[in-house]
Each structure stands twice: as C-alpha cells, then as structure tokens.
Amino acid sequence: MDRNNNRDPVYLQIIRYFKEKIAIGELQPGEEVPSRRELAHRMKVNPNTVQRAYKEMEQQGLIYTERNHPSKITTDINALGKVRDELIVEAVDNFVLSVRSINVPVEELLELVRAKYIVQDDEEVKA
Amino acid sequence: MIEVIEVEKSYGRKKILKGISFTAKKGEITCLIGMNGVGKTTVLNAIMALTPINKGKILIDGSPLDKTGLEKITFIPDTITMLPKMTIAEAMEFMNDFYTYWNQERANELLGFFRLNRKDRISSLSKGNAAKVNLMLGLALDVDYVLMDEPFSGIDMFSREEITNVFTSHLIENRAVIITTHEVGDIEHLIDKVVLLDDGLVTKEFSAEEARENEGKSVIDVMREVYQ
C-alpha cells in the first residue's frame, strides 16, 4: 500500500489493493485471502481497519466467507470482470481529467498513448 | 474500558490538567498527543495512581481505581527501569517475582519477536534494544490495559519499525492500548483513536479513519489545525 497516502481512508486503500490484484489476475477466483491479522501485519495497518475492508468487500460480493473457514475471492466471474472494467474506467477518467486542461486534440493524444505503450512494452521485454 | 473523567491535577500552583476526559476501549489503540509539557505523562501517571489527582475520576471497567483495577494495567515508561547490571534473564525473573500476571511464555515469545538475547546485560544494550526489552517486560504481563509512554523516542528507524510491528500482532489483540508519542507519522495507520491535549484540556478526540473518510484529512492535518 502507498505509505505516503495518509489522507484516503485506509479501508478504501485496502479494497483498491485487492481490486488491482483481482484485475491483473494475481488473485484468482476462489483463492484464499490472508487473515485479518496477517494482512494488517503485511500492510502495517490497524487490524480493525482490515476487518472493515473485508466486511465491505463481502458486501460488494468480492470475497465470501463460509463458517470457520478463511475468506476467499468470489468465484462469480461476472463480478470479477466488473472490477477490471471499473478500474480501467476510473484510470481513464483520471487521465482525461488531467490532460484536458492542456487542450490536446484527441488524435494527437491517442498517438502519444500508443507510442508510450510501445516504448514501455519494449522496456519490459528488455528487462 | 478506561474512563478518564474531568481529571484535574496541579503541581504547586501550576495547574497541569484542567479537566481532562477521554476513554480507551479494549481492542483499540488510543494515541495521546500534545506538545512537550502538556501533561501526557501526568495523565498516564494518574491512571496508574502514581500521582494523586485533585479532582475528577478514573474508572477501570466501570470501577474506581483500586489494587485490583491497577493490576489490570501494565505501564511501560519511556526508559527501562531495571538495574543496568542485570541481564535480560534476571530482569525477567524480577518481573516474575513481583507481578502476579507475568506470563513467561509470552515473554519468551516477545524475546523472539524482538530478537533479543536473554544473556545480554541491560547496560550493554543499544538504545533500540533497551526500548525493546522495556516493551517486552511490559507486554509480557497478561493484562487488558497497556499504557506506553513515548515508545519511539530517540530510537532509530529500523527499531521503530520493529516496535510498530507489535501493534499489528496478536500480542496486543483485544487489549486497550494508550500510547503517547511525537512520532505520529510512524503509526497513523495503526491507531484507532487520537486524543489531542492542549493547555490542560482535551481539544479534540477523534477516530483517525473517520477523519480520513469524512474530511479527507490525515492525523497530522488535524493536528496542524488544532495547534497552529
């Protein structure tokens, strides 16, 4: 988690962390999530806050808990697909918002985005 | 729950606490913040009945302080109080002899947690390790209430990190912790509640997560507003 972000509610930061892991497939449907205390320890946040994040994720249908078992990522593929869409739309919204003020024509912008993507892909291949 | 109700305390003519009230619940970490000399340590001393108060009440689980109430609390002062020539093992024996709720198993676990060597003498310890021994001795008591006075003062970054790990561990699970500190940035994601003291009074008592959620403010943002 971003240690420098001390203004956003920590439980939302935790939920976001899970959504990102789900979107890139690092957390698979049905996979067990760490215990409340384990995650608190790893992220260095208050265990009560982790509890709150897990409760919220349960309500959103992202994780589920069967009696006396560790919580797991939902197996509802639709719900998981929505998480990815949601993150993409949110990122694009932020991008558009910040770039709007510079008044770049959309065609020019798309060219730049494409070029950047290729450079980044190349760099990843080299790495 | 610890309830501090309208507590007043004077040293001679100087009134240090002018009617302080706040509560600390089990399963929560309550952080007392205030500039130097504002009376944070006096509050902790008053809870431990180490200093008589002039007015007000302090209740532990609903009852006024008495010997049983005090035995439910462990007070971890800002410096270790064991004799320098003692080894860590001897300090542990001393605690075992004098404290009813000393839990040897938990003490051993804490030794491992902080990677301490029981044969080391107190006088030979680095500042960071002395702080860890101090915490180990206090946290090894099987009690519901933990008071920590400035556990991070004068300690290097890595030792501070190891000490903050205590706050997410089962070692303080279900206990009520009251901590005083100047290093809020280190623990602002770990604490539940903040009590800001100024000029002998509680100027603000708030939940750290609610300040972030409802006002988009960090604990330090709120402190700036109150103290500047």
Task: Describe the protein.
The complex is a heterodimer of chains A (127) and B (228). Chain A is built from five helices and two strands. Chain A has 127 residues and is mainly alpha-helical. Chain A has two domains: 10-78, Arc Repressor Mutant, subunit A (Orthogonal Bundle); 80-126, no CATH class. Chain A has a two-stranded antiparallel sheet. In chain A, a hairpin with a 7-residue loop joins strand 1 and strand 2. In chain A, helix 1 crosses helix 3 (47-59) and helix 1 crosses helix 4 (77-100). The two termini of chain A are 24 Å apart. Chain B is an alpha/beta fold and 228 residues long. Chain B folds into two domains: 1-72 and 145-151 and 172-228, Rossmann fold, CATH 3.40.50; 79-143, no CATH class. Helices cover 35% and strands 27% of the residues of chain B. Chain B contains nine helices and ten strands. The interface between A and B is medium-sized, with 18 and 25 residues.
Strand content of chain B is 25-35%
Q: In terms of per-residue confidence, which ranges of chain A show pLDDT below 50 for 5 or more consecutive residues? A: none
| Element string of chain A (H = helix, E = strand) | HHHEEHH
Query: What is the annotated CATH architecture of the largest domain in chain B?
Result: 3-Layer(aba) Sandwich
The SSE order of chain B reads EEEHEEHEHHHEHEHEEHH
Could you name the ranges of chain B where pLDDT drops below 50 across 5 or more consecutive residues? none
CATH class of the largest domain in chain A: Mainly Alpha
Q: Indicate the multimeric state.
A: heterodimer
Q: Tell me the domain tally of chain B.
A: 2
**Biggest interface and residues each:** A-B, 18 and 25 residues
Q: Let me know the average pLDDT of chain A.
A: 89
Approximate strand percentage of chain A? under 5%
Please state how the strands of the largest beta sheet of chain A are arranged side by side.
1-2
Structural class of chain A: mainly alpha
Q: Structural class, from helix and strand content of chain B?
A: alpha/beta
SS element count, helices of chain B: 9
CATH topology of the largest domain in chain A: Arc Repressor Mutant, subunit A
Q: What is the strand arrangement across the widest sheet of chain B? A: 6-7-8-3-9-10
Shape of chain B: globular
- Regarding CATH, which class of the largest domain in chain B? Alpha Beta
Keywords (chain B): ATP-binding, Nucleotide-binding, Transport
InterPro entries (chain B): AAA+_ATPase, ABC_transporter-like_ATP-bd, ABC_Transporter_VariousFunc, P-loop_NTPase
GO molecular function (chain B): ATP binding; ATP hydrolysis activity
Domain ABC transporter (chain B): 2-224
